[in-house]
Request: fold
Amino acid sequence: MGRLTAPDTADAGTPARGWLDAPLESGSAAGFGVYLHVPFCHHRCGYCDFATEAVGGLADDDRDALLRRYVAALERDLATQAATVGERAVTSVFVGGGTPTLLPPDLLARVVGLVGRELDVAADVELTVECNPETADVDRFAVLADAGVDRVSMGAQSFDAGVLAVLERRHRPRRTAEAVALARAAGIPRVSLDLIYGTPGEDAAAWRDSLAAVLALGVDHVSAYALGVHANTPLGRAVAAGTVPAPDDDVQRERFDDLRQLLRGAGFVHYELANLARTDALRSRHNVLYWRHGDYLGVGVGAHGHHDGRRWWTTRSTARYLAALEQDVADGGVARDASGRVRDVTEEERLDDEARALERLLLGLRLAEGLHPRDVPPIAREALESAVADGLVTTACGRLQATADGWFLLDEAVRRLTA
Ligand SMILES: C[S@@+](CC[C@H](N)C(=O)[O-])C[C@H]1O[C@@H](n2cnc3c(N)ncnc32)[C@H](O)[C@@H]1O
Reply:
C-alpha cells in the first residue's frame, strides 16, 4: 500500500483509526451552484423515476397556464432562497428536468435569466440547460444562446432505434445529430450527451455503435448511466412481472468497460463515475460541485439543496408546490421557515460532522480525483488495507481514490471502508 502523507495515529500508539482526525473543510472551496428544476415532459419514459409530470395530454391553454404558474412559483422560490445566501457569487447553474426546453421560448428565457436577476454571478459562470432531442428547436436554442447558456445536456440515451423503443423514447437516432447541429449553429459552445447502457435488448454491438456515434458527433462531454430499475415505474413493474428481463450486472460491467475503453481511447477523461469530458477544462463544473460536497441551492419541485451545513429537498408534487408558493404570496410571505425555505413542502436536515464526513466519502469517491486524506472520515487501517488489497480503492497518489472496480461496486467499497 502506498504511503499516506496524513498523520497516522496508529504509529503514535493510539487506536488504529487511519488517516484523519482533522476537522473537515467546508465545501465552499468547490464553488456555489444553483439547480433549477422544470418537471414537465410531453410523456414520462417508462424507466423514469425523476420528479416529472407528463403534460402532453393537456389542452394547449391548460398546459400554457400550468407552465406559467410554475415559472412564477420558481421565481418566488429562488427569490426567497437568494435572500439567505449573502454575497456569494454563483459559479454554476444547472436547469434540469423534466424537459426545460418544453417551455415556450418566453418562459425558457425567464427561467434561464432567473439566477442572474437574483444573485451575484461569477464572470465565468457555467450555465447548463437540459434538453431532449425532440423538443430542442431553433427558437429554443436561440433563446439559450442569447441568455449566455454555454452548455446543453441532451438526453440521447442511445443511437439504436430498438433500444430507444424499449426506453420509450420518442426520437429517432438521427434526430440527436440534428439537435446537436442546431445547438452549435445557435452558438452554444458546449454539448453534452446523456446515454443509458444495459437496457434489456441492447447487445454489445449496439452499445459500441452508440459510443461510435457519440464520438462521430464530436461532443465535449458524455454522461453515461447504467439503466436503473425503479419499482414505481412501468419498467420496474414489467421487470417485477417478468415481462422484461432485469438488467444483468455482468452485462452492465461489460458496457461500463467498453465505455471506458472507447471514450478514453479517443482522449476523453473519465473524471466521475458517470461522466467523461474531452478535456479537463470541459468537465461539468456543476457536476464536480455536487461530488465535492459543495454548496448549491435547489429550486423547484423535487429539487435538493445543500448549503450552510443543511441539506433540504422539496416535494415531488407539482400541485403541492404550486399551492404552497401561491399561498405564500397570498399570506405575504409568512409560510416560510427561518432559512427561507417554503414550509410544508420542504424538508431539511442538518448534517452533523459524522454524517457530513460519510456523505463526503460517498460523493468524493465518485470523482477520479478522489479525496484528500483530511477530507475523509476516520477509516480503520485494516479496512483501508483490505479495500486496497481487493482493488476497490487506491491511495497511491496520497489521495483516496476508487479504482474502476471500486466505481462499479461503490456501495460495497464505502461499506468496506466504514465497517
Ligand atoms: C432528468 S433526466 C433527463 C431528462 C431529459 N428530458 C431527457 O430525458 O432527455 C437526466 C438523465 O438521467 C438519466 N436517467 C434517467 N432515468 C434513468 C434510469 N432509470 N436509469 C439510468 N439513467 C437514467 C438519463 O440519461 C437522462 O437523460
Summary: The mean pLDDT is 89. Residues 27-291 form a domain with the TIM Barrel fold (CATH 3.20.20.70).
